[in-house]
Amino acid sequence: MFRKLMTFEEAQKTIEEHFKPTFLGEEEVVLLEAYNRVLNEDITSSLDIPPFNRSTVDGYAVKAQDTYGAEENQPATLKVVGIANVGEQPQVKVGMGEAVEIVTGAPLPEGADAVVMVEDTQREDSQLHVFNAVTINENVQKKGSDIKKDALILKKGQVLGPSEIGVLAALGLTKAKVLKIPIVAILSTGGEVTELGKKLPTGKIYDINAYSIGTAVIEAGCKPLYFGVIPDDKAALSKALQTAVSCADMVITSGGVSVGPKDYTPQIVDSLGKPGIVVYGVAVKPGKPTTVGFVGEKPVFALPGHPTSALLIFYLFARPLLLRLAGKPAMPMRTVRAVAGSRMFSAKGRRTFVMVRLEFDANCRLLAVPVESGASGAITTLAGADGFVEIRENEQFVDADEEVLVYLFRGSGFRT
Amino acid sequence: MFRKLMTFEEAQKTIEEHFKPTFLGEEEVVLLEAYNRVLNEDITSSLDIPPFNRSTVDGYAVKAQDTYGAEENQPATLKVVGIANVGEQPQVKVGMGEAVEIVTGAPLPEGADAVVMVEDTQREDSQLHVFNAVTINENVQKKGSDIKKDALILKKGQVLGPSEIGVLAALGLTKAKVLKIPIVAILSTGGEVTELGKKLPTGKIYDINAYSIGTAVIEAGCKPLYFGVIPDDKAALSKALQTAVSCADMVITSGGVSVGPKDYTPQIVDSLGKPGIVVYGVAVKPGKPTTVGFVGEKPVFALPGHPTSALLIFYLFARPLLLRLAGKPAMPMRTVRAVAGSRMFSAKGRRTFVMVRLEFDANCRLLAVPVESGASGAITTLAGADGFVEIRENEQFVDADEEVLVYLFRGSGFRT
User: Fold this and answer.
1) Could B169 and A329 be called an inter-chain contact, meaning their C-beta atoms sit closer than 8 Å?
2) pTM for this model (two decimals)
């Protein structure tokens, strides 16, 4: 079976044509666990906030007109008739010529329409001298001035961070309706792959991809569902893929896509449902054997077995779909501008991604230094890279000292 | 009690002088839960990776010298004596004039020192014609070429992401020793503050800060420990603070720090241990009543009650300490350059932080538009802001159309 490799853009376009971000359903979570979830309801305010006229300072609640004309050498003198504390509706009222002691955050007593700051007063028993006039509503936060009852304050689709969760708390809500988190089935294939924690038999290697890709799934805010290493046997793989497709929102396999005698992942995907495999290999380096299919609306990615290739292809093709399944805004990878530390060659006719490490040179220029990859799929390449540089098909190389854009693998920037 | 406000820098310096990032201890976690944790051990490789000489292509394992001089119209002819599969040490050996069929990833049979790609061969039963010469080690990934046994491959202090966890998996490790996650006690004070989920009595407001700050703690990769709303009573607050100091790595209270009659948080912190409160208010706007202390080495932040102020002060002062307690690299807030959407004024003599919303204007310029704050502490300010602009004490204002640096509240950029 020989098929022409798709270009990077053709593969993206083909995936896009088949991908329908399905609604994964909603669930209710308590506020303390709502971080980074996607709100699935519009929130309108059930109350005025603040729910009452509120003093913004410590001082005295008054009728503003009683203070008109008051100044340093000609104070207004009022009678203190009580106190307004936070957390309770004051029982006392403010009449003409009267004042009520009040603290920040306390409700204004009936009759008062402004608050004089304590610094602008002098008190002798129940006599209060006011040295500064206030206007109506001065030092008062009016009922509903922050949020009006019935106002729309959070919209369906917003990602809940500290501020949004603060807003939900302001309304006294303890729960929020959010989108379900996408579940990603992770299967490892390949006769040489062994589960961690077991003794390594001769000729075998440990399963890396389930863990690196699983972690990248967590990093994207989604849930990996580990299927482990599937025995190298068509019936077993078929059964595992069938289960994966029926219980996860995306399926990722790794290994088993080079054209060896035992590589039947694509056949099985085709047999599970339409349209089946839609991308048979992509003209990229690394990652050429990348295979992508859909069983109904479920995306199935068969990533290459090499750890670096697998993680790169996950970032390039799978992660954007996953974020959209999660209902999150398209979040491009972080980038940083740097200078090529040495000449980087492209693979003839293939979109090339060169893993680089960031470091500063003696002139404080940020350098993107290619990570020595040795043989393809080296694990040290993964561990040593801060990100990658993209070289397009029509470029032969990027020369040393040329400016390059580095796509960062993680938010925190450089390794230490 | 009147004390001179510290400047922003004085407060930072004072906190720095008292802060000792203590070792919180280590714990062992399984690899699947190690994401974003800080490694607390050096990892040296217990094996060569790959653990054997490995073919990087599908083809035939040969002695390179048997192919020397082979070309399109003058093939070398070898005898196929067996097959090498992935995952098992081949039983067959390659002698002079012999070849062994091999797939990608399979161990090289004894005697072979190179692999001819299947594309460069033609086979008739056990006869193999080779049309292209190979050199020694061609298409072979040598044992230990990726990672040598006993090499140091991950260092204590590294944050575990997809790549690092992939490297741990490559060694067959199922667990990692990591630093414990800092625990942050979160206490709400203030007689007007009510727990969520209860009916709101007249004169009261719901507890916002525990939720916004708690979420910001989670966002920083740490664990909030919620103490709820502490009754407005000195003994109760004293007991809660004492418990918080003894069981958490940082304590954050909010509310109760303006100079009202019932604000005894600072007194209690002083009574719990040396040095007690070290910052009594900071010349910033908003956030002036910010109080910071240490009980032994435990930092205690008494944040202002206003939601916007509390979250801002958390980001400015508490979060950097929290990341260092977690053993993580100092991660500055993300910033973006924008153009002031309107004139922003500073508060006389105070470092001013103006909450802004980002939007594009008709000319595709990124604007930082101040969020109408109404009265201080508005919740809508929180919900509407993408970040803030800093105005220094010696600046009167930032004019419309001036370039400003916007500190972003979250990684994902704009709100939708």
Assistant:
1) no
2) 0.91
